[in-house]
Write a structure and sequence with these properties.
Chain B: This is the non-catalytic component of the active enzyme, which catalyzes the hydrolysis of ATP coupled with the exchange of Na(+) and K(+) ions across the plasma membrane. The exact function of the beta-3 subunit is not known. Chain B: Pfam families: Na_K-ATPase. Chain B: Its main location: membrane. The complex is a heterodimer of chains A (926) and B (258). With 926 residues, chain A is an alpha+beta fold. In chain A, β24 (614-618), α20 (624-629) and β25 (632-636) form a beta-alpha-beta unit. Chain B has 258 residues and is α+β, with helices and mostly antiparallel strands. Chain B is globular, with a radius of gyration of 22 Å. The chains are: A alpha+beta (926), B alpha+beta (258).
Chain lengths: 926, 258
């Protein structure tokens, strides 16, 4: 990620080795300093690289269990014998047997099937179990019933099949390879950091070269000039930044994981924050992924049911006798059952055997009435015709308390109505006249228009004389009436939106993020859900809505007037890329319905052409190319297939759209905080660089050594910079637009200039003050130090005179030089304490932000002080580390400068707050 | 004074530093002093003209030789080629110039063997007569023995303000080679205590530090002398520091060619 810095450090290390070799060939007893420094630099590069890799690997590992995708064993018939072999040994032509619970080991053509049902949801997105048989039903292999796909699961039944494709040639394999061939753009943060590295490297290299030339012109030896170059490079490269950025990102990743966003690749943390378009699935992401009773119609009135996640009771008016009959039908005409052993589980969470609608009705009646199973036992079922697509109804006949049999029926409303001659109204049967039919039609259209699945319910008490309790019902011959029944009511079902989604959508909208719904559902359903969650806001209309309102043909409507658009997959197929671009540009609220997973890729590409950072959710294998293509692919944790999880950058553990929004918030925060971290880290570069420049130009003894620089960059500054990652947002970050990829840079020139030329210079002045003080109190006054360097570093001069006439040996001077390093180091450290405090905010006063809200800052400051105390209290006095024991006073030399830094920054922020948009704001706000 | 400085209990140091109730100093300075600090006048204020604030880094003096060899402390003399040693002779002459009687007119004769401590503001300097260096004084032999192949070098102890050597300090030299002998002037390399303490460049203007001359006599056939000199006889003058090879000692080589 920060490869540019590594190459600079490598260059520094190589220069060190060259310098050492030159020195060594001249003089065998040459000091090892350069060799040592070179080795340290190489170690720094390797260790920070390893550290970054480790952090990255750690967060990737969380979902390392993905290899579960491959079925381990296959039951194969070879040479007339059944054998179990590893799935990868299958070849085309093998005959395999599968049974309920198995994963299909390869693409197979079904030869024989006994009620075999498969779950193809990961491949096609269809959540209903699919029946497999040996009949060829469609040209398209994905549609035909006689193909079982690799890695899908056989839910029930058994089947025998012949292997037709293995490995990469399977449908899934092909999609997976398509996914891996989809090019992925660089993450926004990678681009930003590259940009930042360019700035820093540019500064380092240009200053390095300028001063190299100056040094040569000033008649320094080339070797010395090279050593200066190393120092300049070292001072400019923020060695600790790689580690700090990686740790901050992984801290945020951890925090996101707690909020159910599992980030696979650290850079995705920030990508999520810069997201400007979210293409979201409907089912399961925006909705609860379970059918729920939404509305009821009886007694010519529509009632609303509670559709929230944890319904305990239904509050609509239940006094009518019609309702009692309807509830009776709902309870009895239902094949769904609760799974065993769930007595303590709340109703909504119980596992149910049965299809989605029946499950919804079962839970609905259980909530209202309780103990459905007991009621069913009392009314024993004597005959049943299950639902099929031909007669479009389901029927059952039950015993009742009064010896009569009750026939109950549910199904498609128009099919049910056809079989009825009466309708129940307030518990009384009334003839089904025109007005009643009309009322039915109105209600049916209304509920259908809401995108809900509507079911009709009717019943008939069989006359006791014709059907005595010994009567034997035969569903084959239908020896009972199925017409002239009594219509009781309608119930409509919907997969309701998750309750926290509307808020999340509002948040997205205020955060300038466009939410696009992409679903395989019917446009009407899609639109209804889009409206109910706010993807299409209450007052915006589609072209069709406007046409309907103005009663003009759709073609005459000015498309610009419509904020919203609902586009079906068929329409999308016809569109040229330019038309799609126009659609995406002109409409702020878009729903794509009846789309295939493949079309998702087209939509993502269209959004990316608008320069948007696109987040895409997906769960199926077919989604994986789109997930890969998106700037951030989000796979569903529950519903997602493994292939989708592999292709995605992030896994949404609770499949909930609202979690994406909290993730975005974290992502935006870390971008702000990375700015602060970088500003903090860059500042002291100048304080590290100036010593070398002054050293070259003014010939003073070196104020700070290269090793000491490393101790600042990798020692005292690390923890405070990481602590800035915990800083809270200064204002509501969800109230501003997503950052513009090209305009809102992580490191802009304001940040660089302010850090380098304002605070950086202040820090250098403080550092030099400490340095000159350290020399002066020992006898070398500043005026003497100027151009003293040639004598100072001369090994043969062991009687160098100071300002007081005392004479110093070389070693005594070295010792003083190290004292100077240590004083300078402590001064920089003290001012970096002020720096970390001012970096807490970019615009607010420190007091608005609160000095103590982020406790980690204080941990960071404590770490700075402790490390500095350890180094300057004897532990750093190893010659090669070049620290000395420092007098207590030196610690306070830079304190006034630290205070000045803080006051200066408060002043800067004050003016920015006072005069927004002014020259000051434009140039001083980073 | 350097001793006092070192022996301060670090804890007291801290406590007094934060707040000193006697002088009502906070962090080592009074309120007015902090004000001056803010005005950036601190450096000039705290520094005395006469002595530096701290001397802990030069608690013990270094030893050096004149002339200074060009590199690796090796003095190379080729008798038949005057240019090979001419610069050494010049350097010696230059260095000893300030010891000439004419330069020492203001200096006084001091009482040998005791410290010459002075209270007055401007300090007097003790006379160091070149005669003490005898044949190496340059008074009779302007080539300092280089011409005849038995060169002189001058040894001097670094000046340190306030330093008072204990015992009877002297500079002792040894040579590895048997066929070289060394003669020191004054006898036994003695350093007279009357030249201490030193009061610093400003107060002690004419101060001259005592010197010891070393004459290296090569016997016929010998060409090399590896010499080590040390300050001996004084417990507070170190000569064994592991890292500082010039603290109270010096090792050098004299090579002779014909």
């Amino acid at each position: 990620m920060v490869g540019g810095f590594s190459s600079l450090l490598w260059a520094g290390a190589i220069l060190c080795f060259i310098a050492y070799v030159i020195e060594f060939t001249k003089d065998n007893s040459a000091s090892m300093d350069n060799l040592f420094l070179g080795i340290v630099l190489v170690l720094v590069v390797i260790l920070t690289g390893m550290f970054a890799y480790y952090q990255e690997a750690k967060s990737t590992n969380i979902i390392g269990s993905i290899s579960k995708m491959i079925p381990r064993k296959a039951l194969v018939i070879r040479d007339g014998e059944k054998k179990e072999i590893p799935a990868e040994e299958l070849v085309v032509g093998d005959i395999v047997e599968i049974k309920g619970g198995d994963q299909i080991p390869a693409d197979i053509r079904i030869l024989d099937s006994q009620g075999c049902k498969v779950d193809n949801s990961s491949l096609t997105g269809e959540s209903e179990p699919q029946l497999r048989s040996c009949h060829f039903t469609h040209e398209n292999p994905l549609e035909t019933k006689n193909i079982g796909f690799y890695s899908t699961t056989c839910l029930e039944g058994t089947a025998t099949g012949m292997v037709i494709n293995t490995g990469d040639r399977t449908i899934i394999g092909r999609i997976a390879s398509l996914a891996s061939s989809v090019g992925q753009e660089k993450t926004p943060i990678a681009i930003e950091i590259e940009h930042f590295v360019h700035i820093v490297a540019g500064v380092a290299v240009s200053i390095g070269i300028v001063f190299f030339i100056i040094a040569i012109c000033m008649k320094y030896r080339v070797l010395d000039a090279v050593i200066f170059l190393i120092g300049i490079i070292l001072a400019n490269v923020p060695e600790g930044l790689v580690a700090a950025v990686t740790v901050s990102l992984s801290l945020t990743a951890k925090r996101m994981a707690k909020k159910n966003c599992l980030v696979k690749n650290l850079e995705a943390v920030e990508t999520l924050g810069s997201t400007s378009i979210i293409c979201s699935d409907k089912t399961g992401t925006l909705t609860q992924n379970r059918m729920t009773v939404a509305h009821l119609w009886f007694d010519n009135q529509i009632y609303r049911a509670d559709t929230s996640e944890d319904q305990k009771a239904q509050s609509f008016d239940q006094s009518s006798a019609t309702w009692a009959s309807l509830l009776n039908i709902v309870t009895l005409c239902n094949r769904a059952e609760f799974g065993a052993g769930q007595e303590n589980v709340s109703i909504m969470k119980k596992i149910v055997m049965g299809d989605a609608s029946e499950t919804a009705l079962l839970k609905f009646s259980e909530v209202i009435m309780g103990d459905v199973i007991e009621r069913r036992k009392r009314n024993k079922k004597v005959a049943e015709i299950p639902f099929n697509s031909l007669n479009k109804f389901q029927l059952s006949i039950h015993e009742t308390d009064d010896k009569r049999f009750l026939l109950v029926m549910k199904g498609a409303p128009e099919a049910i109505l056809e079989k009825c001659s009466t309708i129940m109204f307030n518990g009384q049967e009334q003839p089904l006249d025109e007005s009643a039919r009309e009322a039915f039609q109105t209600a049916y259209m209304l509920l259908g228009g809401l995108g809900e699945r509507v079911l009709g319910f009717c019943h008939l008490y069989l006359p006791e004389d014709e059907f005595p309790d010994t009567y034997s019902f035969d569903t084959e011959t239908m020896n009972f009436p199925t017409s002239d029944l009594c219509f009781v009511g309608l119930i409509s079902l919907i997969d309701p939106p998750r309750s926290n989604v509307p808020d999340a959508i509002i948040k997205c909208r205020s955060a300038g993020i466009k939410v696009i719904m992409v679903t395989g559902d019917h446009p009407i359903t899609a639109k209804a859900i889009a409206r109910s969650v706010g993807i299409i806001s209450a007052n915006s209309e589609t072209v069709e809505d406007i046409a309907k309102r103005l009663k003009i043909p759709v073609e005459q409507v000015n498309k610009r007037e419509a904020k919203a658009a609902v586009v079906s997959g068929m329409e999308l197929k016809e569109m040229s890329p330019e038309q799609l671009d126009e659609l995406l540009k002109n409409h702020s609220e878009i729903v794509f319905a009846r789309t295939s997973p493949q079309q998702k890729l087209i939509i993502v590409e269209g959004c990316q052409r608008q320069d948007a950072v696109v987040a895409v959710t997906g769960d199926g294998v077919n989604d994986s190319p789109a997930l890969k293509k998106a700037n951030i692919g989000i796979a569903m944790g529950f519903a997602g297939s493994d292939a989708a999880k592999i292709a995605a950058d992030m896994v949404l553990l609770d499949d909930n759209f609202a979690s994406i929004v909290t993730g975005i918030e974290e992502g935006r925060l870390i971008f702000d905080n990375l700015k602060k971290i970088i500003a903090f880290t860059l500042t002291k570069n100048i304080a590290e660089l100036c010593p070398f420049l002054i050293f070259i130009i003014a010939g003073v003894p070196l104020p700070i050594g290269t090793i000491v620089i490393l101790f600042i960059d990798l020692g005292t500054d690390i923890i405070p910079s990481i602590a800035l990652a915990y800083e809270k947002a200064e204002s509501d970050i969800m109230n501003r637009k997503p950052r513009h990829k090209k305009k809102d840079r992580l490191v802009n020139h304001q940040l660089a200039l302010y850090s380098y030329l304002h605070i950086g210079i202040l820090q250098s002045v403080g550092g030099f003050f400490a340095y000159f003080t350290a020399y002066a109190v020992q006898g070398f006054r500043p005026d003497l130090l100027l151009y003293l360097r040639p004598l100072w570093v001369d090994d043969t001069i062991n009687d160098l005179e100071d300002s007081y006439g005392q004479e110093w040996t070389k070693y005594q001077r070295n010792h003083l030089e190290w004292t100077g390093y240590t004083a300078y180091f402590v001064a920089v450290m003290v001012q970096q304490i002020a720096d970390v405090i001012i970096r807490k905010t970019r615009i607010n006063s420190i007091f608005q932000q609160g000095l103590f809200r982020n406790k980690y800052i204080w941990v960071g400051i404590a770490s700075q002080i402790i490390i500095a105390v350890i180094l300057s209290s004897g532990f750093g006095s190893v010659p090669i580390l070049s620290f000395t024991t420092l007098r207590v006073q030196y610690w306070f030399v830079a304190v006034p400068y630290a205070i000045v830094i803080w006051l200066y920054d408060e002043f800067r922020k004050l003016l920015i707050r006072r005069y927004p948009g002014s020259w000051w704001d434009k140039n001083m706000y980073y | 004074m350097s001793k006092e400085e070192k022996k301060l209990n670090p804890e007291d140091n801290w406590r007094n530093f934060i707040y000193n109730p006697l002088t009502s100093e906070v962090l080592g300075r009074t309120a007015e002093s902090w004000g001056e600090y803010g005005a950036g006048r601190r450096l000039g204020q705290t520094l005395s003209d006469e002595t530096p604030k701290y001397q802990d880094l030069i608690a013990s003096p270094g030893l050096s030789i004149i002339p200074k060899p060009m590199n690796a402390l090796e003095i190379f003399v080729n008798i038949s080629e005057k240019t090979s040693y001419e610069h050494y002779v010049t350097a010696l002459g230059h260095f000893l110039k300030k010891y000439e009687d004419s330069m020492q007119e203001k200096n006084i004769e001091c009482e040998s063997g005791i410290f010459f401590e002075q209270k007055s503001r401007s300090k007097l300097a003790c006379k160091f007569s070149l005669k003490i260096l005898q044949v190496c004084s340059g008074l009779n032999d302007s080539s300092y023995g280089f011409d005849e192949g038995s060169p002189c070098v001058i040894l001097k102890m670094n000046r340190i303000i306030g330093l008072k050597p204990e015992g009877n300090p002297s500079i002792q030299c040894h040579v590895k080679e048997e066929r070289v002998n060394l003669v020191t002037f004054p006898d036994a390399g003695k350093i007279d205590l009357m030249y201490f303490p030193y009061y610093g460049k400003k107060a002690h203007k004419n101060y001259l530090q005592p010197l010891v001359a070393l004459k290296v006599n090569f016997q016929p056939g010998s060409e090399e002398a590896s010499i080590e000199c040390k300050v001996e006889g004084s417990p507070n003058l170190k000569n064994q520091d592991e890292r500082d090879k010039f603290l109270g000692r010096i090792a050098f080589k004299v090579t002779l060619a014909h």
